[in-house]
Amino acid sequence: MNYTRLLPDMISGPPELFQLAVDGKARTIMLINLTILGICYGLSNLYGSMGANPELPLQGQFVFITPALFCVLGIFTMLGALLGFTMIYWAAAKAFGGQGGFGLVVDLIGLSLVPFWLLAPLLNFALNFNQHESVPLWLLIPIVLGFIWSFKLVKQSLIVGQGLSDGRATLALACMWIFSISAVYLSIP
Asked: How far is residue 37's CA from residue 74's CA, in Å, rounded to a whole number?
């Protein structure tokens, strides 16, 4: 694997990328991706909170403290989401004939996180800070494109990392998304 092509490969998802997880060489990349995802999610919370609460402290020393606090909380939130998605991914992989392995699954998901840098903040904003009855088109289009992109990458991770066929990977991923979306729907007040 050429590490200078790592970001373009995480965007396109070639089999060589996910082979890094199989070979046990992806943990650092997973942690970096998780950190970036958490920061993006935290900043989306900050942006939404600034619109909802204009008195949010952002002057003086708080110009750094408030965004840092939101970013740290975003990282912990995304760590919890990663653990939840790991259990769902593991169960689906095992159900469709994959080997599972929690460490491997975490690494495979970690290599698939680039679309979620966009998807998680946009979904967060749409669900928690959107003032409209429905999701505006300017927000819906990138969410749908991010969903399609994430579907492609996670599917490829199932094929390479779990040894599933294209059809089984598609079914496993469809089950994961249906379960995940149902869980999110049930948790929305």
From this structure: 8
User: What residue ranges do the domains of the chain occupy?
Assistant: 15-187
pLDDT tens, 27-69? 999 999 999 999 999 999 999 888 888 788 888 888 899 899 9
pTM for the model stands at 0.89
SS (H, E, C) 132-187: CCCCCHHHHHHHHHHHHHHHHHHHHHHHHHHCCCHHHHHHHHHHHHHHHHHHHHHH
* Whole-number Å distance between alpha carbons of 33 and 7: 10
Q: Which regions of the chain does DSSP assign to beta strands (E)?
A: none
**How far apart are alpha carbons 173 and 159 in whole angstroms?**
11
